[in-house]
């Protein structure tokens, strides 16, 4: 776990980059949309790698009891400020692989975590093996297939030819993007029931005129909502979200 990417020292930059942009706003909105039917009644929720607590705050506002975990002390200091007025949230500094009480929760939320880990598929296995039967997992991750598609559009052919690996890893670049189809197959092989599949930002990141990302945000959001659960568009989401259930 020591090689996993955490955000100590760059917590503010991380927060601004994720939530201070149209891409962050759109991602959060769509993740909440997909989750919505599965959080209609009060649940015990644990969020893995919850960062500054934006999703935890949303879930707590709906009446759920939430445990927010993250490996980064700096990020959780920001979360404590963001969540100071929220009831029903417990904050723990903890690596995913050190969490031992998954069985206490009805819903596990793991959004944009896998791509920062050294062994993302091992992490999926660990969550599945420790969840209780009947519990659900909301899993989202940076989509390697969409990443390749985007780089082709940008003309980054040398980068693609090198396997989309860089000599010097930028700290806010995901460590290990994952193929959406491969993750689906892995989860099914483990024994998860795949309840829902959705692409997150199927159109936003490919817009030729990036000013439209903000000037036409409402129209863009409506289009994303219309198509993000439909093939082939969902497979082009820059992030991919799964709602999974352990039988």
From TrEMBL:
**CDD domains, alphabetized:** AdoMet_MTases
The record's keywords, sorted A to Z, are: Methyltransferase, S-adenosyl-L-methionine, Transferase, tRNA processing
Specify the superkingdom. Bacteria
Where do the annotations place S-adenosyl-L-methionine binding? Answer: 27, 49-50, 70, 111
InterPro entries referenced in this protein's UniProt entry, alphabetically = Cmo5U_methylTrfase, Methyltransf_12, SAM-dependent_MTases_sf
An example of a Pfam family matching this protein is Methyltransf_12
Which reactions does this protein catalyse? Answer: 5-carboxymethoxyuridine(34) in tRNA + S-adenosyl-L-methionine = 5-methoxycarbonylmethoxyuridine(34) in tRNA + S-adenosyl-L-homocysteine
Q: Name one GO biological process term.
A: methylation
The Methyltransferase type domain covers 46-135
Q: Name one GO molecular function term.
A: methyltransferase activity
EC number(s): the record gives 2.1.1.-
| Coiled-coil region list | none
Q: Which PANTHER family match?
A: TRANS-ACONITATE 2-METHYLTRANSFERASE-RELATED
According to its UniProt entry, the function of this protein is described as: Catalyzes the methylation of 5-carboxymethoxyuridine (cmo5U) to form 5-methoxycarbonylmethoxyuridine (mcmo5U) at position 34 in tRNAs.
Family statement drawn from the similarity comment of this UniProt entry: Belongs to the class I-like SAM-binding methyltransferase superfamily. CmoM family.
Q: What is this protein called?
A: tRNA 5-carboxymethoxyuridine methyltransferase
